[in-house]
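Methods — Computational structure assignment.
A single polypeptide chain was analysed. Its primary sequence is given first, followed by the predicted tertiary structure written as structure tokens.
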Amino acid sequence: MKLIKLTPIFLILAFCNPAFSQDSQEIIKKVQEKYENISDAKASFTQTHKSSGGKANSSSGTIYIKKEDKYRIEAGGQIIITDGQTSWNYSPKKKQVVVDNYKDGGNTFSPNKFLFNYPENFYSDLEGNEDVGGVECFVIKLSPRSGGSVKSAKIWIDKNEYLIRKINVVTNESTNTYVLKDISLDAGISSSKFSFTPPEGVEIIDLR
């Protein structure tokens, strides 16, 4: 399984159809207000990864997020962690960890960017409505204003709670879809969750 290297949202007017009665700028504002005052979040998720020309693979896991730029993703026997300065990609099965500087390019994907910050360098369009796990959601399409690793993205926003329920990201190498559930805001996640000390006997590949 390959996770996107690490990582709210949207825009357009609606007219006669009642499903589009809410202006997308309003949606953006409500989502931002929802996340603005929280310090961390935790959720379980399922991920579907499809590489270019390859077949789709699915896995499930847990994601932890903390301001600023801290996240931890545990899925498919792989752990990805960043403290906002250093990132670790750890494979217990291979007994190997890849260490690198945390990179936050303008148009790269990180969960913090889509959950805590409006990605200003993306054009946004309200596409419609769709059910995600029994929850009615707005569907927002994001298109990059300039070149970068992300070609396009979509985000599904809970129409009642204004929580992000699903994310689809298309890069040059792959398409990844995350469906979030059991979302817990202000879960009191310790900062130690976002640092990593390699266990004894683990091969360290340092790219810094």
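Note: The radius of gyration is 17 Å.
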